[in-house]
Automatic annotation (TrEMBL):
<protein>
    <submittedName>
        <fullName>Uncharacterized protein</fullName>
    </submittedName>
</protein>
Length: 224
């Protein structure tokens, strides 16, 4: 018999919805606050708070964090020719994996983020200026100062050199309310609210060279 995993734990449904939210915010990696709280302080500092939402499967609001890694920055080499995997090579592979399992070192993930060349390449566009401006934009968004938040987030839309998905998503959400926080706003909304949000930035954003949702950067931002 097949068992629906969400019957066993609501955490499964939360995880599924957080994964689906990567499409909404146009990011490669999302983590909930429950995951981030279990990280060391150094790793928590590398996770960017991008929203606080109510997701199906959770009765309390969930903070969502983006782990900013742009996989498109990595150059993928041509595939190497694999050797014929015969009985002798299979035995060698098992022995090698057993040795690796016994001698497996303990990885410091924070150090890995700081020193691994591939991770550095994937994070090369994530500057301190970008993070600070986004942080100010998010704080104003959470506190209901949406017109102020709009200005900061329109800047972070293209500050990385490519469209920043979380900035676009928050602008799109605020635009659906005319950049005026609804009465009783506490910095929390349903994840499903994005379905009712608009699909583009305001005309002011498009006119000053910011990003245009759905089509990438405006011609001014691209440098055309």
């Amino acid at each position: 018999y097949k068992i629906e995993a969400s019957y066993l734990s609501p955490n499964v449904e939360v995880a599924v919805n957080v994964e689906a939210a990567t499409q909404i915010y146009n990011v490669n990696f999302l983590a909930s606050e429950a995951v981030v709280k279990n990280c060391c302080q150094g790793m928590r500092d590398k996770c960017r708070l991008i929203d606080r939402v109510v997701v199906p499967g959770s009765k309390i609001p969930v903070q969502l964090f983006s782990i900013d890694l742009d996989v498109l920055n990595i150059e993928v080499g041509a595939p190497s020719k694999l050797p014929t995997f015969g009985a002798r090579l299979r035995v060698f592979a098992r022995q090698y994996l057993e040795v690796q399992r016994r001698n497996k070192p303990k990885h410091d993930v924070e150090t890995l983020f700081d020193e691994d060349l591939d991770i550095q390449t994937m994070r090369r566009e994530v500057s301190d200026d970008f993070l600070e401006i986004f942080r100010m934009g998010y704080q104003n968004y959470a506190e209901g100062e949406w017109q102020v938040a709009q200005k900061f987030l329109e800047e972070t839309c293209v500050l990385r050199g490519s469209v920043d998905g979380p900035s676009v998503a928050l602008i799109r959400f605020m635009e659906s309310f005319g950049f005026e926080a609804p009465p009783g706003w506490r910095g929390v909304h349903d994840l499903s609210d994005f379905q009712a949000a608009g699909v583009g930035l305001s005309s002011a954003a498009r006119g000053d060279g910011a990003c245009s949702v759905g089509v990438g950067l405006s011609s001014a931002a691209r440098g055309d």
